[in-house]
Design a protein that fits this description.
By secondary structure, the chain is mostly beta strands. It is built from three helices and eleven strands. It has a domain of 125 residues.
């Protein structure tokens, strides 16, 4: 909620709010009520309410700039805010306008060494070729899964034949130079997996984005006027555009 009023949902068919549409330069404080809020805010607030309280009167010009860079890649982000407000009617009313611009370029998982490596968690029996002892299930030396970097694995049917999961064809028993492939004698599985034949490996981290690229512009206008000592007229308009 914003100023104890339900904020416009980010998309149709949902009540979820994109908090990026709320002008950061106007925020005075944030109230969090964890229970008993339905009596004030309705049945939807039975589990609690987050209420963003905006500054009532915004006067003067406020401009801010934030720009960030990453040491190990070309990733950067930036944020520019502009806000202007003024009183009118001898201070009984106030009107303000806000403009915010945010953008960042994408950060791929391969851009940083600590996210560039692909890890696969294999069950203990599959990774070691041995069943985990029943009395060792809580022993740290016998983990439920073993994580290996850049690891591929065979896909084996219950009949023991090596097959290509992409074409459904049984792989040949000889290479083109008449040599024999390695013989797999480990556990068998009929599960549908994303895997490569003959233990080939592809690093799927190249398709992972740590930070997505986006560009967002928000416009906000609000005004309030004290009609009487106990009566205040209030209006807030928000418009936002985002491109990815």
């Amino acid at each position: 909620m914003v100023d104890k009023k339900r904020h416009v949902a980010s998309s149709s068919g949902t009540s979820s709010v994109d908090t990026n549409t709320i002008p950061s330069s106007w925020i005075d404080r944030i109230e969090i009520i964890t229970g008993g809020a339905s009596a004030v805010y309705g049945a939807d607030a039975v589990t609690g309410v987050v209420n963003v309280v905006l500054k009532k009167d915004i006067t003067g010009l406020n401009v801010s700039t934030i720009k960030g860079f990453a040491d190990n890649s070309s990733y950067q982000n930036e944020k520019y805010t502009f806000s202007y407000g003024q009183d009118f009617a001898d201070g009984r009313g106030n009107a303000a306008f806000s403009l915010e611009y945010n953008s960042q370029n994408s950060l791929n998982a391969l851009d940083n060494p600590w996210t560039a490596t692909s890890y696969t968690a294999f069950p203990y029996a599959l990774a070691t070729g041995m069943q985990r002892p029943a009395d060792k299930v809580n022993d740290e030396a016998f983990p439920d899964h073993i994580t290996l970097p850049n690891a591929g694995f065979y896909v084996i049917s219950n009949q023991g034949t090596v097959w290509d999961p992409f074409t459904g064809d049984i792989l040949g028993l000889f290479y083109s130079d008449s040599s024999l492939p390695d013989v797999y004698a480990g556990p068998l599985s009929d599960a549908d997996n994303f895997a490569s034949p003959r233990c080939d490996f592809i690093n799927l981290q190249q398709y992972s984005e740590v930070q997505p690229k986006f560009e967002r512009v928000n416009y906000n206008f609000k005004t309030n006027y004290d009609v009487a000592d106990e009566l205040n007229a209030y209006y807030l308009a928000t418009n936002g555009k985002k491109a990815c």
